[in-house]
Design goal:
alpha+beta; Aminopeptidase; eight-stranded mixed β-sheet; 5 helices; 8 strands; 29% helix; 36% strand
């Protein structure tokens, strides 16, 4: 699967007040199915985003054990045996981040109509540029094309940044929670979104 999209990227720093007119740049971002050769770059994006997003949420000891070397082995194995469906966003051959999706892994949903976004991760230097939204919309579109009318995803309850992102994308909590062990017991909350109107980001 190969898709080319042109994104309008806000050149201003989203975290700073704007004192001058906003400049925009166009970036041709390629979305394609990941292969085992992408494992090191996927691992780098995964680890760097975790360290940035989860500092102060997960115990430091757990984060220190979340290494590029370990994640590379994990990605290579899952991509070789096709146990995970992952797509990469790349610019000029550099992987910026990735999207993993597939069947919903929960037992309390209608699996004929429900798909799941397993995760979206970006290198921190590419946050707040519209690429996360691009990946989320592409994920919704792919699930909808398979007959799914609902998409679900899980987010740590304490991860306010991710929760705000998905809420801005139209996802809503559905009341389901679960405890996950990530160096300490933490609560994850489930979000869902109806996909009848889902369209790919152009």
């Amino acid at each position: 699967m190969m898709q080319i999209r042109t994104l309008i990227i806000d050149g201003a720093d989203a975290d700073k007040p704007r004192r001058s007119p906003v400049r925009h740049e166009k970036m041709n971002v390629n979305l394609r199915r990941a292969t085992s050769d992408d494992a090191p770059a996927l691992a780098e994006a995964h680890v760097e985003s975790w360290l940035k997003a989860y500092r102060g949420i997960l115990p430091d000891a757990h984060l220190h054990g979340f290494t590029v070397e370990r994640r590379t082995k994990r990605f290579r194995r899952s991509l070789t045996d096709n146990s995970e469906e992952t797509y990469v966003a790349e610019l000029d051959g550099q992987i910026l981040g990735f999207l993993t999706l597939g069947d919903c892994r929960d037992s309390d949903v209608d699996h004929n109509t429900t798909g799941e976004i397993w995760g979206i991760y970006l290198l921190p230097q590419h946050w707040r540029k519209g690429i996360g939204r691009f990946l989320a919309k592409q994920g919704e579109s792919m699930l909808a094309s398979r007959g799914c009318s609902v998409a679900t995803l899980w987010v740590l309850e304490a991860n306010g940044q991710a929760r705000r992102f998905y809420e801005a994308m139209g996802f809503e909590t559905d009341g389901a929670t679960k405890e996950v062990e990530l160096g300490a017991p933490l609560t994850a909350v489930r979000y869902r979104k109806k996909l009848e109107d889902a369209e790919p980001e152009n």
